[in-house]
Amino acid sequence: MVALCAATVAVGISSPQAWSAPGDGGLVADFPRLGLEQVGADSTLAFYGSQGVTSITLPVPPGLVPSELTAVAELPVNLGSGTLTVTQGNRTLSRVVLPNVDRLPITIPLDGVAVEDNAVTLTLRTYLSPIAGYCLDPTNPLRLTDAGIVYSGSENPPKAIADFLPPILQRINLFVSPTPTRAESDAAIRLATAVVAHYGKQNTAVTVSPLGQGETAPPQPSQPMERNVVIREDPDAGISLVGDVGVPALIISGPASELTNQSRLMSSGLSRLALSSKAVVGPLRSSPQLAADNTTMRQLGQPGVNATALSPQVSIALDQTRLGRPAHDIRIHLQGSYTPLPPTIGGQLIAAIGGEVIDRWPADSSGSINRWVNIPDRLLQRYTNLGVALNISGDTGRCGEFQPITLTIDGDSAIQSALSIPPVPGGFQALPQAFMPRVQVGIGDSFDDTRRAVSILVGLQRLSALPIETAVKSVPEAISSEGPAVLVAADGWTDSSITLPVATNTSGELTVQNVDGSGAEGKLTLDPGSPFGSLQTMFDGKRTLLIATSNNAPDQLDGLLIWLDSDVEHWSRLNGNALIEAPGRPPMQLSTDVAAAPEGPSQNRTALYLGIGAGVVALVVVGAGLIVLRSRRPQG
């Protein structure tokens, strides 16, 4: 069993570093070394061909300056020599000769780098030459792995509310009453999801802890690149910094009717104007934006994509969370260009998803692209990558001396879609887009339910490119509402109006819905019974629900949430419509709906296996299946 008094929603701890502690306040970073993934960039940089290029943007906390890039160089086959340069604008910051031995660490100085608006943008270029008589493999790039950034200097502690949230935030620690009010729970969830949405790929960790009896401030100072926040219902409305030395804590307080407005300050543009140690916020209206049927790649965050190679290919991210709703009937009007081919070279353009070609057409001498491509609903996932490639045939020379081809898809390419009811796909892949633009959060009055709700909503927010708007209610109120809802019932599910896909009780009986897709139930009685924790999602005919519950085993549910929080990929890899954990067994992903996910060669929809305790009891239910972990969020 797992007992929790605080929730850790993600892991974002930096590698060992030297830190300084100014006075009794929170600690500041002193000459930190961070992996690129900790600052929201990819930890592996790839450079294809004889001349490769990539750009990275690095956040820089006030008081710090980037001094070095570090990495391990993985050399391509047949490399004779190579040079890497780093430029900022028109200035060359560094030029490094690559090692001639594979997987050697390299250090790239950044002397003279200029910081602007707490960030730097660097361009890295590689110039590679093959061994005499050999060719570089165009599919085998130079890779810089385990890349990191070393900063010099000491972080400046914030002096005003506008500076409280730094450019790099590894963890935010929220403190609430051990018996939080609904307003305190609502503010904690809103602040947690807003912070995660703001920092994105930094994967900022979130913890929720109860204040001790009589405490009004955090019991411990914050660690480097962390922040402490107290959320308290109080007659005195406002946001204030507490602590004169080091990194102060932030206190968000106000009566129930005002507390939400105060917490919204940290996620609104007004935080830039809070240039004092205390600020009081007037009404801030949240107006979720309704999704449009017509948009463009640019409006969805892709200003355009291009590639230069002998057979160039690009990837277009169709992200339903950016569309802001569950969508289907998606069409994209591909507009762009490619280098015109000479008469001696043939070519065709191919559009594919997951290796399956969905459209192809011949390349011609015009070099223009103007074609509508329909995305089959059966291939849709939360994130669907549409690949567009130009394949050529003909004599391209010994080492591909034929001129490289540039393939470009313009950011103004139109994308059309329609609201999907029910969502396509269903199950966990429908989340969080099925919760947009607003989701009800039904919880009890306990601190533990607030902690569980924060864990779930932070996990969902990590999947989304857009902020998720939430509203906390009681569980009965959320059930009776018409909108989508997250429901936390840790002790057990008792509402007979909603039937769970996989129901368990304390007597050991399991009930699985929709056996063989017929709508019939399958039952199994376990002797002895076993505790279960589960996270299950369903579409009830008008809305999507996500229910966190157990068979009177809340610790088992907590263990399941800990597993989800232990790796940022766990949420994105969920498929099916039920995630269940039993003691001594890893969590199991199940599907009780044959329409929940397209069938694949790795899926078996004829058997549902539940591991119970130290042994394994096999429950055969025709029509349900063991779901294979897959579907990662696209990079970029």
Automatic annotation (TrEMBL):
<keyword id="KW-1133">Transmembrane helix</keyword>
<keyword id="KW-0732">Signal</keyword>
<keyword id="KW-0812">Transmembrane</keyword>
<feature type="transmembrane region" description="Helical">
    <location>
        <begin position="607"/>
        <end position="629"/>
    </location>
</feature>
<protein>
    <recommendedName>
        <fullName>Cellulose synthase</fullName>
    </recommendedName>
</protein>
<feature type="signal peptide">
    <location>
        <begin position="1"/>
        <end position="20"/>
    </location>
</feature>
<keyword id="KW-0472">Membrane</keyword>
